[in-house]
Design a protein that fits this description.
The chain has about 475 residues and is α/β, with parallel strands linked by helices. It has three domains: about 5-80, Nucleic acid-binding proteins (OB fold (Dihydrolipoamide Acetyltransferase, E2P)), CATH 2.40.50; about 105-135 and about 300-465, Vaccinia Virus protein VP39 (Rossmann fold, 3-Layer(aba) Sandwich); about 145-280, OB fold (Dihydrolipoamide Acetyltransferase, E2P) (Beta Barrel). The chain contains ten helices and 21 strands. The protein has helices at about 5-10, 100-120, 180-195, 235-245, 300-315, 330-335, 350-360, 375-385, 400-410, 425-435, and strands at about 20-30, 35-40, 40-45, 55-60, 65-75, 145-150, 155-160, 165-170, 210-215, 220-230, 250-255, 270-275, 275-280, 285-290, 320-325, 340-345, 365-370, 390-395, 415-420, 440-445, 455-465. The strands form four sheets. It has a seven-stranded mixed sheet, covered by helices on one side. A seven-stranded mixed sheet has the order 17-16-15-18-19-21-20, with helices on both faces. Strand 2 and strand 3 (about 40-45) form a beta hairpin. The longest helix is centred in the first third of the chain and has 19 residues, at about 100-120. It is globular and about 65 Å long. About 45% of the residues are buried. The structure holds S-adenosylmethionine. The site of S-adenosylmethionine has 19 residues, from helix 6, strand 16 and helix 8.
Length: about 475
């Protein structure tokens, strides 16, 4: 939008060649955590560059709209630079900002949100708060989902390196909870010992594709999911016997994913041993989680995020609240004691089953959950007379579907609370909403993913005609 004219101008000024050495001031952080500079108005992305630095860089790639370069020498280093503690930081694509001091990471994440709004909306004087960070921004992740590979008879488990298909061993991952690292390493050893055939993505042969481990921080229960191309595993019993004996493992499931796809999980999940769901607690709420259900990766920060959702919803006890994209019902149940009615929906049947179970578990009788797409169910329910006062949306990275945006603009709600993990789609959706009479009243960024460039936000939009 506003920046488009400038961008066209930059493109017309492309001069760079691969291999060219240039001196470049880094102006800001890009959405993937890279440093961004401008050379004769052309955008240049520099992995590992920090805003405020002055770098000698070598151009490695030239595209129509931008170029990429690598650092040759830091002519002026940032005072916010630090040595990344992780030994595989540069090989692994998981973290992008370990080389930046944490306080600066938080500032840069706020700037990402600011930049997205100024690029895609006309909102003046953005009501943007400081990023809410963690005191100890390590060991925070409750879940890892790692691909497997067999190389020269050795079972490897890890993450693909940035831009490659080489597996990086993550057994000492610093952002993962240590219990998860330990479980995964023990599962890897068991796979090695039992000789379960590992999936080969080139030939689409073999069985086991991924291993997922999720830990409930409050109860310490661990769930392990084996994701397999085949509906059963050879030597399944032997493997079950090994995994069920690992410390804190309370649930073991097999997910069947027979397709050639980059999606990790398939549609069918079968319990191999233990409980179908593990139980997490956030404050006084209990959330039972089955393997296919979404749950935020950072429980400590999730409590802060949900508190902000509650503050934004400003409930008095009389409201009908929609929890769109509800997952296991976590947000709706966080609000339920202050609402007259909660109604949620999600496309994943297991998540909706968890949400219904969780309502019962928390003694909530006035919450109901449905399987389906928010963009289809809400307009249908509106025709049948549903008039929500507050709608909470928490969509995937792609943002809200067009149908849902159309519904929210045609049938405005008093308060729309938008939880987002992608500032660009958030800002684009907010632009649609503000053009139809909503006002952005408050935006709070949360650091749910320290050491990475990801930022979560909670945005409150109000509609004047409904207030
Ligand atoms: C970011 S998660 C949020 C889950 C939940 N609100 C939470 O805080 O844990 C997004 C959820 O949206 C669901 N989903 C994706 N597309 C959807 C759609 N069109 N309608 C409803 N739910 C959808 C996914 O299954 C996932 O559970």
């Amino acid at each position: 939008m506003k920046a488009k004219g400038n961008e066209e101008q930059m493109i017309s000024d492309i001069q760079l060649q691969i291999g060219q050495m240039i001196r470049l001031p880094i102006r800001k952080m890009g959405i993937n955590g890279e440093g961004v500079g401008y050379y004769r108005k052309q955008v240049v992305f520099v992995s590992g560059g920090i805003p405020g630095e002055y770098l000698l860089v070598k151009v490695t790639r030239v595209e129509k709209r931008h170029a990429s370069a690598q650092i040759v020498k830091r002519l002026k280093s940032s005072s916010h630079r630090e040595t990344p503690p992780c030994p595989v930081y540069l090989e692994c694509g998981g973290c992008q900002t370990q080389h930046i001091q944490y306080a600066m990471q938080l500032r840069l994440k706020r700037e990402l949100v600011d930049e997205a709004f100024s690029r895609y909306t006309d909102v003046d004087s953005l009501p943007l708060e400081e990023t809410r960070g963690m005191e100890r921004p390590w060991d925070y992740r409750n879940k890892a989902q790692l691909p497997l590979k067999e190389e020269k008879g050795r079972v490897k488990m890890g993450m693909y390196g940035a831009g490659s298909h080489r597996l990086v061993d993550l057994s000492g991952c610093l952002v993962q909870h240590p219990a998860i690292n330990q479980t995964l390493e023990q599962v890897r050893k068991l796979l090695q010992e039992t000789g379960i055939p590992i999936y080969d993505e080139r030939t689409h042969r073999g069985s086991l594709r991924h291993v997922m481990a999720r830990r409930a921080f409050a109860t310490r229960e661990i769930q392990v999911a084996l994701i397999s191309r085949t509906p059963t595993l050879p030597r399944e019993k032997e493997l079950i016997e090994g995994i069920r004996r690992l410390p804190d493992v309370a649930s073991l499931v097999l997910n069947h994913n027979p397709r050639r796809t980059s999606l990790v999980m398939g549609e069918k999940t079968r319990l191999l041993w233990g409980k179908e769901k593990i139980e997490e607690r956030l404050r006084s709420r209990i959330y039972a989680l089955s393997a296919p259900s979404f749950f935020q990766l950072n429980p400590a920060q999730t409590e802060k995020l949900y508190d902000e959702v509650r503050r934004a919803a400003a409930l008095t006890g009389a409201e009908t609240v929609v929890d769109a994209y509800c997952g296991a019902g976590t947000i709706g149940l966080w609000l339920a004691d202050a609402a007259a009615r909660v109604i949620g929906m999600d496309t994943v049947p297991e998540a909706v089953a968890d949400a219904r179970y969780n309502a019962r578990l928390n003694g909530i009788k006035h919450a109901e959950y449905h399987v389906g797409k928010a963009e289809e169910l809400l307009p249908r329910w509106a025709e049948e007379g549903l008039k929500p006062d507050v709608v909470v949306v928490d969509p995937p990275r792609t943002g809200m579907d067009e149908g849902l945006l159309r519904y929210l603009t045609k049938k405005p709600v008093k308060r729309l609370v938008y939880v987002s993990c992608n500032p660009s789609t958030l800002a684009k959706d907010c632009n649609r909403l503000t053009r139809s009479g909503y006002r952005v009243e408050r935006i709070v960024p949360f650091d749910l993913f320290p050491q990475t460039a990801h930022v979560e936000t909670c945005t409150l939009l109000v509609h004047d005609s409904r207030n």
